[in-house]
């Protein structure tokens, strides 16, 4: 595994997640009372799409074994997020673990989407 890929994408993913969290937090803070449900839905959808894009970007930047490299990258990223959440957050272990498992699942789904699109492209080119 290339250490440069690992460090660049780990730092980039962390910065992307921080920016995404900031945007979602702003949406939640300025959500008006009658439209609170819509703002919550918008925030959750934005988080899911952002995580998919981060997972897709990590898979597109991997050199050789895209699934293996991104798997290790996402496990490390989610582990750091879990440790940070447990250290500085006020949530209990179970809810933090479930939330971070959800992050990992959506990140890996972004890798799956990339692999499906990439497979279709290579089949179209070879035909």
Automatic annotation (TrEMBL):
<feature type="transmembrane region" description="Helical">
    <location>
        <begin position="101"/>
        <end position="119"/>
    </location>
</feature>
<feature type="transmembrane region" description="Helical">
    <location>
        <begin position="12"/>
        <end position="32"/>
    </location>
</feature>
<protein>
    <submittedName>
        <fullName>Uncharacterized protein</fullName>
    </submittedName>
</protein>
<keyword id="KW-1133">Transmembrane helix</keyword>
<feature type="transmembrane region" description="Helical">
    <location>
        <begin position="71"/>
        <end position="89"/>
    </location>
</feature>
<keyword id="KW-0812">Transmembrane</keyword>
<feature type="transmembrane region" description="Helical">
    <location>
        <begin position="38"/>
        <end position="59"/>
    </location>
</feature>
<keyword id="KW-0472">Membrane</keyword>
